[in-house]
Design goal:
18 helices; six-stranded mixed sheet; 434 Repressor (Amino-terminal Domain); alpha+beta
């Protein structure tokens, strides 16, 4: 008769205890065992019995599967794939040892998988350089690009989340506020605590005490949004998970990104319910500042929400959304307007989103024209920048909303203006893809153009190109 193998869950128990904010003594008291026994379990010197597993689940309101480590089999499979790498072919690691590693040492397993992933990515970069190709192969797995592609394919519109959020918003309004809804309907108390107590978190759910802990230095719109994110996870987790699974993503990182962004989408839909927000956006000419006041949301939250209005019969202006830092790095991109932004490299320096950093807090409007003649209207403004407390860095970014020129008259910013008669700034998708030879702002020559071998002439543009 086969004998059941002991269950060692030391790292998982330690991680659970720390997430709950408990000492070993406190956990021991909760479970009616000795602190030394807790210490032995966490060091994998004692197995977790079935009785203790049930006691943990009952005391801390957990699903037993969360403790038993359903993902250990998947981790074992991934470690097995790593061990088939030709570099490791001479190492004999039996399947049983791999399973033991994944089950008993999940932290070490995750570290091994991350290191191997980083190794593979660096190998790809080196191979690309040797072959004279771009440093990033578009076919290589990139979780950020994959997640962006998924949201672009869905036009950043998820009807099931919007519908559920509208129903919840009605309940929350009946109870007076989101915090009161959580207290009445979920038994969760919202507390605002100093950042040193939360230790590098702005939101943390204390499952043991049924408390939602929020950084008390956050501004009111961000506080409101963080509470809404928790409500989204509490009530729409199944829908979020189903959408992420159906996306056909290639790896855990991409799935995690999509799930997190879907939760943020749902939170935005709670703060700004679709029907009410769409009507207000139409009535106010998509005036972002006015909508901020109406819904108690930040400029970025409203701009983001404006990209999601794709409900049939109640569509909003199709917007493209971009967020950049002062160095030009893109940290968020949402496409509902068919704007052909470069997947690699920086954007065009002639776009006013970059000028916004020199005029913080001011809304900048601009008419844009791409090399192929497409015209767009853009609004841009900085967001953030203020330090939340002494010692905290202030991070400033700029966000831009752009729509096709024909939609611009629907915006308060361009009302009464004929798009056809307005001069537009000629911009490019990116220097490598822009064929405007005379551009003085160019940083790199475009693909496919030969530089002129002319040492007798200097042009205003950084590069001279041959005519052939």
């Amino acid at each position: 008769m086969s004998q059941a193998r002991p269950l060692y869950l030391g790292p998982r128990i330690r991680r659970l205890r720390r997430e709950l904010g408990l000492t070993q003594q406190a956990m021991a008291a909760d479970l009616d065992i000795s602190p030394s026994y807790v210490a032995l379990i966490e060091r994998n010197q004692r197995p977790v019995t079935a009785d203790l597993l049930l006691r943990l689940a009952r005391t801390y309101r957990l699903d037993v599967s969360e403790l038993a480590g359903e993902d250990s089999a998947d981790d074992a499979r991934r470690v097995g794939e790593v061990m088939r790498d030709p570099l490791l072919a001479d190492i004999d690691l039996p399947a049983l040892e791999i399973a033991d590693l994944a089950t008993s040492f999940p932290g070490v397993t995750e570290a091994l998988l991350r290191l191997h992933g980083a190794y593979l990515r660096e190998q790809q970069v080196l191979a690309d350089r040797q072959l004279g190709r771009e440093a990033h192969d578009p076919a290589a797995p990139d979780p950020v690009r994959e997640a962006q592609g998924f949201f672009a394919a869905q036009r950043n519109h998820f009807p099931t989340l919007d519908a559920h959020a509208e129903e919840l918003a009605i309940e929350i309004a009946e109870d007076g506020a989101a915090a009161e809804w959580l207290r009445k309907r979920k038994g969760v108390r919202v507390r605002y605590l100093p950042p040193e107590v939360l230790v590098e978190s702005v939101r943390r759910f204390d499952r043991h005490n049924q408390q939602l802990l929020i950084d008390d230095t956050l501004d009111m719109p961000t506080r409101k949004f963080q509470v809404a994110v928790h409500i989204a996870w509490s009530t729409m987790r199944e829908e979020i998970t189903a959408i992420a699974r159906a996306a056909g993503l290639s790896g855990r990182s991409a799935i995690a990104l999509v799930r997190r962004n879907l939760a943020a989408y749902a939170a935005g839909a709670l703060v700004m319910p679709y029907d009410r927000f769409a009507r207000a956006a139409q009535a106010r000419g998509h005036d972002v500042a006015a909508l901020c006041g109406l819904f108690g949301a930040s400029f970025e939250q409203v701009a983001h929400r404006l990209t999601t209005l794709g409900r049939p019969g109640q569509e909003g202006v199709p917007f493209f959304f971009l967020r950049v830092d002062p160095a030009g790095n893109v940290s968020k991109r949402l496409d509902g307007a068919g704007f052909p932004f470069a997947a690699q490299g920086g954007g065009c320096p002639l776009w006013s989103i970059h000028e916004a950093f020199r005029r913080p807090g001011e809304i900048l409007t601009q008419w844009l024209e791409l090399p192929d003649g497409q015209r767009f209207f853009s609004i841009a403004r900085t967001v953030g920048g203020e330090a939340r407390h002494v010692g905290a860095p202030g991070v400033m970014r700029a966000v831009a909303l752009a729509c096709a020129a024909e939609h611009a008259p629907r915006l308060a910013y361009a009302r009464g203006i004929d798009p056809a008669g307005v001069p537009a700034t000629p911009i490019g998708i990116g220097c490598r893809l822009c064929q405007r030879a005379a551009c003085t702002a160019r940083a790199l020559p475009p693909i496919g153009r030969e530089l002129a071998a002319d040492d007798q002439r200097a042009g205003a543009a950084p590069y001279l190109f041959s005519e052939g």
